[in-house]
Amino acid sequence: MVDDLFYEGNTDHSVSSEDEDTLVRSCSNLSVSFGYHCNSYQSFPLENDEHDTSPQMRFETNAMTKSRNGSFTCLSGAAISANFTLANTNICKGLIGEEILPELDSPNSFRKIVSSPSMSRLDLLSTSQGSPASTESSIFEISKNLWRSSAPTTVSSNFLTGTEVKMAGGAAGEDRVQAVCSEKNGWLICGIYDGFNGRDAADFLAVTLYDNIVYYLYLLECRIKQQDGLCSSSEDSLNGVKSELTLAMEIAENEDVKLSESFRSGVLNCLTSAVEQAENDFLCMVEQDMDDRPDLVSVGSCVLVVLLQGTDLCILNLGDSRAVLASMPYAEMDTVKATQLTEIHSLENPLEYQKLLADHPNDSKVVMGNKVKGKLKVTRAFGVGYLKQKKFNDALMGILRVRNLCSPPYVYTNPHTLSHKVMEDDLFVVLGSDGLFDFFSNDEVVQLVYQFMHDNPTGDPAKYLIEQVVHKAAKEAALTAEQLMRIPVGSRRKYHDDVTVIVIILGNARRTLYRSEDKMETGRGSMKKTSLVCWVLLSLRDAFA
């Protein structure tokens, strides 16, 4: 692994020279900026083309490498603030903001994590205060605490509890970004949490969601092993039976054997259960603290989670953050196709709008001022209890309270999930909060990244997208980029939102090779320009040799 992978590349061809220095300096305003490059590559022999006699082609072919587990080659993340927000103050009696987040946050580099003790500390706090959690939640916590006490030592092969796991992430305004990877086993989990009305919900997700995902994946592997007759009890599972997840990782090294569809479905269910549990835990905490902080009932967050293992990409989203896949079909070399892998859960989506109206036929004021009950544009979100339960709305006073909350919930928590099998055409995935897509379409985003990575093989695509947002926001406001960046956070929200971006360069190098004879001009011994990841890998080899 190489931290701080990316360097400033050649100057951006789409930015005027007078703004170049300003945009480079704007990087100092980034709240989060990290990169990761997989070290574990092996040679990938190319089937020789009978028409290929080019020494350059042979050199580039020999230099081509692939990630050992075919998951991802490298990634970068970046985020910039526009909203003014107080750091997490006293939710959970200050435990999250004062103790847990400082241990987890690593905004500029990846660092090793051995275990995830955050939720266990929150559980102890909840128990000591007499949490109003349901019996089901109590059983969940007892089960998870039992797992925590044994799993990290007895199932050391599990990628989620092994010492090779690394994490990066941090906050930007009301947004949070998080990336957790195990290069050894070829796993990657990324999350973007776009908070609103404060950052408390996004902070809570950063502290708890990964831990929940770990636990539910552990339950999944136990169920699979029991169904296959590999163990007779969960205790046996913890005492030396090889992890199903580890078996899956080893299987993934063989391209002819794929994870079963049922296992992928199980992973999606794990992501859904993890979010549902985080929601229940958060609303319990809000109920405990709302006498002191009634504003917590209005705090919420969009959720975007991506889990990548081998060629299996599992996605969950709530709200309007997006995951966009860039691919290059065989027949259309140098034409990048954008495919949105997420749903947009806001009133801008006609399906969401109609569902909301249909669910509340006796409420004539479901949508007011293009917002749900006049308060919120998104139709699905984490938190935001006052639009889900009457008791939370009653905690607010005056104009803050929603009038005529006839038939809650008005905002939903059921996520969109999707499993995608990474194909040879697939190049990279862009994850972004809605602040990115306020300025660029899906097609524009993938084209920007593709062209940038071609022109700047060792550049940072996530940081570049942030720079493009700054440049376009300034242009639309008839300002220079320098003038825009001088506007204080808070006031700058008038021009752009918090923006969070992760770019994942997918790891199957086979798809980057030449894919048709007509892309070679063999008579003259020359070729057209190579595809994206070929350039990336060659340049990384030279940069880190």
From TrEMBL:
Ranges for domain PPM-type phosphatase: 160-506
Alphabetically ordered keywords of this record: Hydrolase, Magnesium, Manganese, Metal-binding, Protein phosphatase
EC number: 3.1.3.16
Metal-binding as UniProt keyword: yes
Pfam families assigned: PP2C
Named cofactor requirement(s): Mg(2+); Mn(2+)
Any Gene Ontology biological process: signal transduction
GO molecular function: metal ion binding; protein serine/threonine phosphatase activity
InterPro entries membership: PP2C, PPM-type-like_dom_sf, PPM-type_phosphatase-like_dom
Family listed: Belongs to the PP2C family.
UniProt protein name: protein-serine/threonine phosphatase
